[in-house]
Amino acid sequence: MMKWLDRFPLLWLVVLAVWMAVAPITPEPHLIEKLRMLGNGTLSRPIDIFDLCLHAAPLLLLVLRLWRRLSRKSDAL
Questions:
Q1: Are 3 and 47 contacting, i.e. CB atoms less than 8 angstroms apart?
Q2: How far apart are CA 2 and CA 66, in angstroms?
Q3: CB atoms closer than 10 angstroms to residue 38
Q4: Which DSSP string corresponds to 30-49?
Q5: 32-51 pLDDT, tens per residue?
Q6: Residue 77 gets which letter from DSSP?
Q7: pLDDT for 12-22, tens place per residue?
């Protein structure tokens, strides 16, 4: 089911994840702003929830890709 993620180039996934995590750099990255709003309980507007999902999705995919890669290596040992 997740084989499509294994075929995605790791370098491009890292670049996309870092870029989306820090964009826009000024005045504050959206991901940091939205996580702060989530922590404060003020993340309620649909556009803010969408923005959080948009900026966090590449990081989540990167974590899943690395987890799958590490689990395959440990199975081979």
A1: no
A2: 12
A3: 13
A4: HHHHHHHHHHHT---SHHHH
A5: 888 999 999 999 999 989 98
A6: -
A7: 999 999 999 88
| CA distance from start to end of the chain | 23
Provide the residue type at 49 as one letter.
Answer: I
Whole-number Å distance between alpha carbons of 62 and 54: 14
Write the Ramachandran bin of 41: left for phi over 0, alpha for psi from -120 to 50, otherwise beta. left
DSSP 27: S
Rg from Cα positions in the chain = 15
Q: For the chain, how many residues are written?
A: 77
Rounded Cα–Cα distance for residues 49 and 40 (Å): 14
